[in-house]
Structure formats: C-alpha cells, structure tokens
Amino acid sequence: MPIITEITPPEPQIVTVEMLAIAIRNGIRTESMMSMDEAILLAQHILNFFGFEERMIDNYLEPDDRGLFYMLEEVRILMPEREETTLYDGREWRIHYWVLNTRRIIELQKEQKKEEREGDISDIYKEIPDEYWTRGEGE
Asked: Per the structure, how many domains does the chain have?
C-alpha cells in the first residue's frame, strides 16, 4: 500500500515596490547612497516591465533599460534565463528572459533590518548627557 503525503506548494512571493526599492538600495552599494525616493522610482520602473509576472521577455527592453537590468543582475536581484526551441526549418531559436529573484530580494531586505538593529545599539551612547563623560573633575 503506497504512503500518500500531502506536500504543500511554496507560497508565491509577491514583490512590492517598497521591497524592491529596499533591495536595490542595499544591493547597490555606492559611495553616494541612493535615496529612498530614487530607489522607489527605479523599483516602479522595473516592476512596470514585469506586471504581475515573475518573468519577462528581454525583447521589450531598450538599451538603457537593459543596462539597468545587467546592473541588477550583478547583485542577483534579476536573473537571466533563456529558452531554446527548434524551428520547422531546423534552425535553433533562443528566447531570452529576465526573472525576479525573490529570494535575493528578501535577503537584501533582511540586511537592512539587521543594520537597523545594529544602528539602534550604537545610538545608546548619544542619550548619555555630556556631564557623565567627564572624568576626574570635581573629585
């Protein structure tokens, strides 16, 4: 008698504009930190290509947009994918896609939360009044 186990499929991850903006800010580390407003505009621009899908065809991209996609590929926010098919006349046809890497986007969000927690610990010294930092005066 076979053993039947029910395996629940993984929950689909929805990528919001804010999630992608945080991932972009944390993934693209430059000397001049990108503002959240700039990251949101960039995230909206990227998500407009994908719509409600996790994958989009590369043919839609203009050269400037493709450069942006390559930049996000370097930080693994986007992943390239390709499909090959044989045409009726025997030639190979390649279709290139871009895929949102939702796992990496979530990882980059956790980095920000970790940095926020670490930032809170170092701010504790700012709350101590200056008079407590003087040593040996008045003793």
From this structure: 1
- Beta carbons of 46 and 131 less than 8 angstroms apart: no
Residue with tokens 């945080």: 22
Domain residues for 75? 17-118
Q: What is the largest CA-CA distance in the chain?
A: 96
Q: How far is CA 29 from the centre of its chain?
A: 12
Which H or E run contains 121?
helix 102-122
Q: At what angle do helices 36-50 and 63-74 cross, to 10 degrees?
A: 110
pLDDT tens by residue, 16-37: 999 999 999 988 876 557 888 9
Query: Which pTM value belongs to this model?
Result: 0.69
